[in-house]
Design a protein that fits this description.
Blueprint (H helix, E strand, L loop, with lengths): L10 H12 L4 H8 L3 H13 L3 E6 L7 E6 L1 H4 L7 H13 L3 H23 L4 H14 L4 E6 L2 E6 L5 H6 L2 H14 L1 E7 L8 E7 L3
Antiparallel strand pairs: 1-2, 3-4, 4-6, 5-6
């Protein structure tokens, strides 16, 4: 069973977590990951569809008939952490309306610097791979559901959940500050590939270590 399920309480939550992690899955794939029967998965799927937490669609296959896949509906997305969306939007909008966009930028930069200083002593002298793994732990604690992949020798970071996505849609400075934090933390350059703000199902970066 996947490590992403370690802290989930029941099968329905595990299904939601797997769909968040993988984007979409079939009944067979869910049964394999959960190590339960397809019939048991179908019962949970029916409940989740009834509660409007998931939705299904037919997906074409390279061979054979199309198969039904399941993915999170908007209410299912709301199951995952979204930090103080309403309060944050009001606060940031207030600064913007008051003509304090430079102050807004400074606040975000200071916040990321404080975040960096919090962990600086713990990863000082560590290797690039150590820092990658440490960043993954930090992001797990913050609710980002990170996934690290090595594709043809290049490290890729995928954030499968963004606790601040609704706020970031209005204030892209948040994404910019987060990206600068990651680059400073790793001593690396990030290239953006996908963004949840733009409607993708994750934020996806390729990572290139500096002076490597």
């Amino acid at each position: 069973m996947s490590n992403v399920l370690a802290h989930t309480k029941n099968t329905k939550e595990q299904i939601l977590s797997l769909l968040k992690l993988n984007g979409n899955m079939t009944i067979l794939e869910l049964a394999h990951e959960l190590e339960i029967t397809e019939m048991a998965v179908r019962r949970h799927i029916q409940t989740l569809e009834r509660d409007k937490l998931i939705q299904s669609e037919m997906k074409k296959q390279t061979m054979g008939r199309p198969s039904k896949v399941y993915q999170l509906a908007q209410q299912g997305e709301d199951f995952f952490p979204k930090k103080y969306k309403e309060f944050s939007l009001q606060l940031l909008q207030g600064l913007k309306d008051a003509g304090q966009e430079e102050l807004l930028r400074e606040i975000l930069v200071k916040n990321q610097e404080k975040h960096f200083e919090q962990y600086q002593s713990e990863f000082k002298g560590k290797t690039f791979i150590d820092k990658i793994n440490y960043l993954k732990k930090i992001q797990e604690q913050d609710g980002y559901m990170p996934k690290i992949e090595n594709q043809n020798g290049t490290v890729h970071l995928k954030e499968l959940n963004c606790p601040l996505v609704e706020v970031a849609k209005e204030f892209p400075q948040i994404c910019q500050a987060e990206r600068k934090f990651i680059e400073k933390f790793l001593g690396a350059e990030l290239t953006g590939i996908q963004s949840m703000v733009d409607g993708h199902n994750c934020c996806h970066y390729s990572i290139q270590e500096k002076n490597s």
